[in-house]
Amino acid sequence: MSDTHAESIRFVRETTLPQAEPPVAERGIYKWGRENLFATPGNALLTLIALYVIYVVLSAVLPWLLNGVWNASSLSECREILAGETGGCFAVLVDRWQQLLFGFKYPSAEYWRPALAFVLFFVAAAPVLFFDLPRKMLAFTALFPFLAYWLIWGGPVLVPVVALVGFVVGYLAYAKLVTRSFAGGFFGGIAAAAVTWIIGGFIVDWLSGPSSLLRAVPSRDLGGYMLNFMLGVTCVSLSVPFGIALALGRQSSMPLIKWVSVVFIEFIRGVPLITLLFVASVMLAYFFPPDSNVDLFLRVVIMITMFSSAYIAEVIRGGLAALPKGQYEAADSLGLDYAQAMRLIILPQALKISIPGIVNIAVGLFKDTTLVSVISMFDLVGMIRGPILASTDWNGVYWELLGFAALLFFVVCYGISQYSQWLERRLATDHR
Amino acid sequence: MKKTAIFGALTIAGLAAGAAAAGTLDDVKARGKLNCGVTTGLVGFAAPDANGKWEGFDVAVCRAVAAAVLGDGDAVEFVPTTGKTRFTALASGEIDVLARNTTWTFSRDVDLKFNFIGVNYYDGQGFMVPKALGVSSAKDLDGATVCIQTGTTTELNLADFFRTNNINYEPVPIETNAEAQQQYLAGACDVYTTDASGLAATRATFETPGDHILLPEIISKEPLGPLVRHGDDEWGDVVAWTLYALIAAEELGVTSANVAEIGTSTNNPEIKRLLGTEGTLGEMMGVDADWAAKAIAVGGNYGEIFAKNIGEETPIGLARGLNAQWTNGGLIYAPPFR
């Protein structure tokens, strides 16, 4: 710099000023608060009202939650400990948690079995839910139903093994015969599996002695949240394939298949679930001789599966209808047969469209499993309404028990919903 | 056409099964277990405890019958039934006896084809009011609001009672006992009315039971008792006389403490006949000679069962009232063992 002006100019700043912080009202929480909470007088008013409501709710709930009693043997003892102060009586959860989770008749020495099955369920479900995982894990998924059955019900290990062998034999027969005709393969497979099961049944009766590795637990001893979870998982996983079959059947050009599907769907959708459950528990008892009762759990699974597959069929039909006709024609022009076209082109797109609907039904179905409490099965709600509230110790505890049940259901339903959103993002191939 | 044939075949199969199950006593013995229908849970009458063991006043009847027939009070498969499923469970043969605080009525006995074998609890509809209301008789309830479960006989009984006494009331219809409890405590109604035993059990769960009183009027008859299927009188006799044995034991002073030795030490011939140390009463009925002794040993006599499950020492705190022995002015009365 020249010093020409050194005399005429008093001061020259040679460095830039350090950046000043923005004014208080324009930064941090003030700015955020002003813009988001108090932007207009109307907003300010709403904010104040909202704060007041939050305060009222928290001031009622927090003392109840934090001051709760966790250690007592009855409601009256809880009240003695609280001595008139506000507080929940969570001791009922400590005292009866096994009954809430497993029902009151499942032998307590065997709780590890359903717990282990529960953990393995996630291993088995992972490759189905997250298809980036190695495909070899599907082998375990295929084995899991038989393993879980053996873990939860116990009894002779040969029963699930024979069931598994039946499926394998059925599949082999199908694979051998299907090259000639689909119908031959289909019915041949079923026949082969049935023959295997009948022969296997005799072998099981003949071989299995009274002692077995895992103690047998009859179905009516199952209960608590375990029962809800088992019903939910079994019925959802069974009703998706049935729903797909029904949806395709309804679109079929063969009148017999079409009308069977239509009548089934319309009839089942026109009947309340609770009616179907009553039929399962009450009416069927008249038709079977007293000693050869078909397992109540199985009856309920069949009824709930029928119910939800009818709904899922309609959701998937919506997905099929949403596909442009060009997709069907493109499949035909490639020379694909019906099965290939469906498997490779139509269903992947239709199912993707149907995901929100299917998840909606799965969540609803999972919560509907609590309806079995009206046919005196002791699921989570049945346990609360029946044995626990009817015990002299805990009669009168409502919020704590029902809140706990709500929490358990919320965790699962929220998890399902989050998964479906992930799945939709993962499968998004359109350019929006 | 084909469906009709299938249903017909199923019906015939069901009827055949019903016919095959005629000898319930033999069936129970062969099975080694008594299938007993109970409620899914009613305070004091039937509920599983923290270990899953069923306890209660109705449960005690099941255990006594199992002990009389099979010699083991734990040889019972408890089948929980709801108000809707109880009668079909009994009619279809799923259970051998229903002990589920069921009111003995004409239509249930005659039309539904069941046999009530006796009464183990005489109940009746009562009223509960807050003490602060300052009412001592149901006749003072003119203009009161009354919480009442809809669709029950209590609703009709209530209307009759107020009409005969020429006073007015305002009903607050509610659905379940739990809801009634909350409504009553919240002050939505001045009075809550249902069976007196239910009122006592409900009051026992209140934070301050002392602030509420049960009015002395009982306005209906609700005899609760166990029942069996029509047409199998041998089995009905076994259940009925087991209940009578418990009742007679209280009258005769046989308790769970002395039942083991009183049969030989006493001079009273009726006790000897009851406990099987004399006579052949058990043989006549097709069970062991000491059937009654076993039944009494499980939970004690009628009075002990009452005191342990619903009596004044329990939180439910029911007085004997109508359920006292006839010698004490109650209705509990067993025919003679002779």
TrEMBL record, chain A:
One of its GO terms (cellular component) is ATP-binding cassette (ABC) transporter complex. GO terms for biological process: amino acid transport. Keywords: Cell membrane, Membrane, Transmembrane, Transmembrane helix, Transport. InterPro entries: AA_ABC_transptr_permease_3TM (IPR010065), ArtM/GltK/GlnP/TcyL/YhdX-like (IPR043429), MetI-like (IPR000515), MetI-like_sf (IPR035906). It holds the Pfam family BPD_transp_1. It comes from the Bacteria. It is found in: Cell inner membrane; Cell membrane. Its main location: membrane. Residues 225-420 form the ABC transmembrane type-1 domain. SUPFAM superfamilies: MetI-like. It is a multi-pass membrane protein. The chain crosses the membrane at residues 44-66, 111-130, 137-152, 158-175, 182-204, 224-248, 260-288, 300-323, 344-366, 397-416. GO terms for molecular function: transmembrane transporter activity. Belongs to the binding-protein-dependent transport system permease family. HisMQ subfamily. NCBIfam families: HEQRo_perm_3TM. This is Amino acid ABC transporter permease. It comes from Pseudosulfitobacter pseudonitzschiae. The lineage of its organism: Bacteria, Pseudomonadati, Pseudomonadota, Alphaproteobacteria, Rhodobacterales.
From TrEMBL, chain B:
GO terms for biological process: amino acid transport. It comes from the Bacteria. SMART domains: PBPb. Transmembrane segments: none annotated. The keyword Transferase does not apply. Keywords: Signal, Transport. Residues 33-262 form the Solute-binding protein family 3/N-terminal domain. Residues 1-21 form the signal peptide. Belongs to the bacterial solute-binding protein 3 family. PANTHER family: AMINO ACID ABC TRANSPORTER PERMEASE, AMINO-ACID ABC TRANSPORTER-BINDING PROTEIN YHDW-RELATED. This is Amino acid ABC transporter substrate-binding protein. It comes from Pseudosulfitobacter pseudonitzschiae.
